[in-house]
C-alpha cells in the first residue's frame, strides 16, 4: 500500500491558476507555432530563479529568521525591480546572485543580493563578472549601491573561477569607491571574500544572529584549537565595537529600513548634493532645551566640569529633532551623525563629555577621520562641536598609535573642502583644539558659546601661568606647619596631635589658595575673551539661538558652494 507523500508548498490552493497567454489582445486565435513556444520558454527562463527554487530551501531561510533575496527587495521598495544580467544558466548557475536597479523614493539605486536558496549564494567567475559590471555601471551612471550579502563564499566546484570572480568584483568596487556611496547589509553567515567585498563599501549594517569575518569558528578551531562562537568571533557586538560595522540592528527588516533611511542623507555621487527636503520646522525656532541642559549642568556642584550628552544638542538643532548616528556603539566620546538643518543635509562631528570627558583616543580619532573624509568626498557640509580636554594620554594609547590616529583625524580635517563650521561648546584645550577645525585648519566660521573655555591647557595651566606665586605659597607651608604646631604645644596639646592638626589646617589653606588661582586662571585665560580678541573666534552665540545662527550661516555657505568631485591630490590615509 503506497502512502501519499504531502509536499510543502507556499501556494494558496484557493488562488485561481495563473495562465500566461502570449497573444495580442483582440487577436483572433490561430494555430500556435514556434513563436509562441519561444515566448513560453523565454518567460519560464525569466521567472526560473523565483519559480524553480525548492520550497524546502525557502522554508529553511524562514526557519532561520531570514528572507529570500526577492523578499528583501520588497522591503527596500514597493516598485518592481529592473533585473539586469540574468545569466541564470542551465543549472541556475548565475542565479545565486541577483543584480539590478531599484527605484527607492524616486531615486535609481544599483543593487545586488545573494540568493542563499541557490547554491548557498556562492560566487563563481560568472557571478563575479556580472557584479563587477554592475559596480562599473553604477559608477558611470552616478547612482548609489545597496548590497544584500548572504553568501557561503566562492563556489568550490568552480575552482579558481570563484576566486577570480571575487577579485574582479573587489577591483570594480574599489574603483567606484569615492565616486558613488554604497551601503552593505550583512545577512546570514559570510566569510572570506563575502566579508572583504562588503567592507569595501561606504557603510556596513549588521543585524543580530549574523556572522561575517576572515574565517568561521570551524577554521579557528582547527588552526588555533580555540573554541569560539560565531557571535563572539564576528557577530554584531564585535564588529559594532571595532567599527567594522557602522550600524548594528535587531533583524533583517531593521537593516533594510536603516539602509533606506541612511540613503536619504546621501547624494547619488561625488559631484552632486544630498537631497534637500523642505521642512516645516522653522529655522528661527529657539533651542530652549539646550539652554536648560547647560544651565542644569553648569550650575550643579561640579560646575563647569559637569559632563553632559552632546547628542541632546544635535537633536535640538536638527529639523524636527531627527538625526542618524554613525557607529553609535563605538568610541562614544565622539558622536558622528547625519542630520538636516533647514532641509539641507549636514554632518555633525561632536565631542561627547558624557564619556571620558570627551577626550580623543585612537578609536574616536579614526572614527572622526573616516566620517569627515566621507562627507568631504560627497559634498556634505560639516558642523563640528568642540568640548574636549584634549587627546587621551597614557602608555596604552601611545602603544596603540595615538599619534598616528590623531594625524589621520587632522589630515581629514585639513583636507575638507565642503562648507564647515566650528561651534565651541565649552572646553577647547591644547592639541585637540589645534587639530579640530579651527580657522588655521580651514574652518569657514568659528562660533562659541559664552561657556567656552579656550586655552592652551585646562586648570593645570595655572602651574605655568602662576608659577612664581605657587612657589611662594607652597614654600611657606613648612614654616606655617611649624608655627601652628608650636602654638598648639604652647596651649598644652600633645606634640604629635599638635603637628597633625597644624598640617590639616595648612592643607586646607593650601587648597583654598590653589582654588583661588584656579578661579583666577579661568577668569583671565579659560574663557572666550582672548579668542575673540585675537580673531580665533568670530562671534559668540547664545544657546537659545544655535539653530537659527548655524542654519543661516550654513545656508549662506551652501549658496556659494559648487558641488564637484574632489580634484585635489588624494593624500595617504590611515
TrEMBL record:
- Nucleotide-binding among keywords: no
Identification of the protein by name = Acetyl-CoA carboxylase, carboxyltransferase component
Q: Where are the transmembrane segments?
A: none
Q: Where is the CoA carboxyltransferase N-terminal domain?
A: 32-278
Going by the UniProt record, its keywords in alphabetical order are:
Transferase
Looking up InterPro entries in the UniProt record yields: AccD/PCCB (IPR051047), AcCoA_carboxyl_beta (IPR034733), ClpP/crotonase-like_dom_sf (IPR029045), COA_CT_C (IPR011763), COA_CT_N (IPR011762)
Q: Which intervals hold domain CoA carboxyltransferase C-terminal? A: 289-560
Which GO MF terms are attached to this record?
propionyl-CoA carboxylase activity; transferase activity
Amino acid at each position: 500500500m503506497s502512502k501519499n507523500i504531502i509536499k510543502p508548498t507556499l501556494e494558496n490552493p484557493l488562488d485561481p491558476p495563473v495562465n500566461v497567454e502570449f497573444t495580442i489582445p483582440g487577436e483572433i486565435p490561430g494555430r500556435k507555432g514556434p513563436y509562441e513556444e519561444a515566448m513560453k520558454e523565454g518567460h519560464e527562463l525569466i521567472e526560473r530563479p523565483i519559480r524553480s527554487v525548492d520550497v524546502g530551501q525557502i522554508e529553511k531561510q524562514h526557519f532561520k529568521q531570514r528572507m529570500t533575496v526577492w523578499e528583501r527587495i520588497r522591503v527596500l521598495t514597493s516598485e518592481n525591480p529592473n533585473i539586469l544580467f540574468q545569466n541564470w544558466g542551465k543549472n541556475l548557475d548565475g542565479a545565486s546572485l541577483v543584480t539590478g536597479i531599484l527605484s527607492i523614493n524616486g531615486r535609481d539605486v544599483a543593487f545586488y543580493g545573494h540568493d542563499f536558496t541557490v547554491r548557498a549564494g556562492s560566487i563563481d567567475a560568472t557571478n563575479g563578472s556580472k557584479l563587477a559590471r554592475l559596480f562599473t555601471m553604477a559608477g558611470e551612471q552616478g547612482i548609489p549601491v545597496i548590497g544584500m550579502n548572504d553568501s557561503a563564499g566562492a563556489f568550490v566546484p568552480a575552482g579558481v573561477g570563484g576566486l577570480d570572480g571575487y577579485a574582479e568584483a573587489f577591483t570594480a568596487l574599489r574603483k567606484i569607491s569615492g565616486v558613488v556611496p554604497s551601503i552593505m547589509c550583512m545577512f546570514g553567515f559570510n566569510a572570506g571574500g563575502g566579508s572583504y567585498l562588503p567592507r569595501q563599501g561606504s557603510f556596513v549594517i549588521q543585524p543580530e544572529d549574523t556572522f561575517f569575518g576572515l574565517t568561521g569558528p570551524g577554521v579557528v578551531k582547527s588552526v588555533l584549537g580555540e573554541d569560539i562562537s560565531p557571535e563572539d568571533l564576528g557577530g554584531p557586538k564585535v564588529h559594532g565595537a571595532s567599527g567594522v560595522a557602522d550600524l548594528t540592528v535587531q533583524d533583517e527588516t531593521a537593516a533594510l529600513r536603516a539602509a533606506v533611511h541612511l540613503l536619504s542623507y546621501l547624494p547619488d555621487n561625488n559631484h552632486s548634493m544630498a537631497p534637500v527636503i523642505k521642512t516645516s520646522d522653522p529655522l528661527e525656532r529657539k533651542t530652549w532645551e539646550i539652554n536648560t541642559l547647560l544651565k542644569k549642568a553648569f550650575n550643579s556642584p561640579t560646575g563647569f566640569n559637569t559632563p553632559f550628552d552632546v547628542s541632546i544638542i544635535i537633536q535640538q538643532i536638527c529639523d524636527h529633532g531627527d538625526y542618524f548616528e554613525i557607529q553609535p556603539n563605538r568610541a562614544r566620546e565622539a558622536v558622528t551623525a547625519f542630520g538636516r538643518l533647514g532641509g539641507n543635509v549636514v554632518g555633525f562631528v561632536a565631542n561627547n563629555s558624557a564619556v571620558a570627558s570627551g577626550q580623543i583616543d585612537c578609536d574616536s580619532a579614526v572614527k572622526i577621520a573616516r566620517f569627515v573624509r566621507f562627507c568631504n568626498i560627497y559634498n556634505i557640509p560639516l558642523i563640528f562641536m568642540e568640548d574636549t580636554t584634549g587627546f587621551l594620554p597614557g602608555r596604552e594609547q601611545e602603544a596603540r598609535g595615538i599619534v598616528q590616529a590623531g594625524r589621520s583625524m587632522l589630515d581629514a580635517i585639513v583636507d575638507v573642502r565642503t562648507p564647515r563650521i566650528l561651534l565651541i561648546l565649552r572646553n577647547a584645550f591644547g592639541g585637540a583644539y589645534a587639530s579640530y577645525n579651527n580657522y588655521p585648519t580651514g574652518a569657514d566660521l568659528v562660533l562659541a558659546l559664552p561657556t567656552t573655555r579656550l586655552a592652551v591647557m585646562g586648570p593645570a595651566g595655572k602651574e605655568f601661568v602662576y608659577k612664581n606665586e605657587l612657589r611662594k605659597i607652597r614654600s611657606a607651608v613648612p614654616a606655617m606647619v611649624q608655627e601652628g604646631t608650636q602654638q598648639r604645644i604652647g596651649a598644652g596639646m600633645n606634640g604629635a596631635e599638635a603637628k597633625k592638626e597644624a598640617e590639616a589646617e595648612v592643607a586646607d589653606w593650601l587648597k583654598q589658595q590653589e582654588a583661588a588661582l584656579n578661579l583666577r586662571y579661568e577668569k583671565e585665560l579659560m574663557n572666550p575673551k582672548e579668542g575673540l580678541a585675537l580673531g580665533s573666534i568670530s562671534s559668540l552665540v547664545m544657546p537659545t539661538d544655535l539653530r537659527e545662527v548655524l542654519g543661516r550661516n550654513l545656508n549662506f555657505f551652501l549658496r556659494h558652494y559648487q558641488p564637484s568631485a574632489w580634484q585635489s591630490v588624494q593624500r595617504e590615509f590611515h
